[in-house]
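W.,

You were right to be curious about this one. When I first looked at the sequence I had no strong expectations either way, so I just let the prediction run and decided to look at it fresh. Below is the sequence, 77 residues in total, followed by the output.
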Amino acid sequence: MVMEPISVEKAMEIAKKKGIKPGRVKGTKGVQFTKGRNPRLETIDWEEFKGTLAKRKLSVFESGGWMKIMKAKKGKK
């Protein structure tokens, strides 16, 4: 499967369908998606998620409905 970069807006659509939210590992700047049941993660709002991606030069990648946060490729968002 090839992971393709997607916009945060598209990630929001996929997340809503899957019942997941943006989250952060408590005490770190690491972001990931969560269903909100892991006590090591705290949910954050989409604006904070988007800002963290920009600051850390990360992008959301998707393939077949699976999403992963990775370093942005040069020239891509």
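Here's what jumped out at me. Residues 4-57 form one domain. And, maybe more interesting for your project: The longest strand covers residues 58-63.

Coffee later to discuss?

I.
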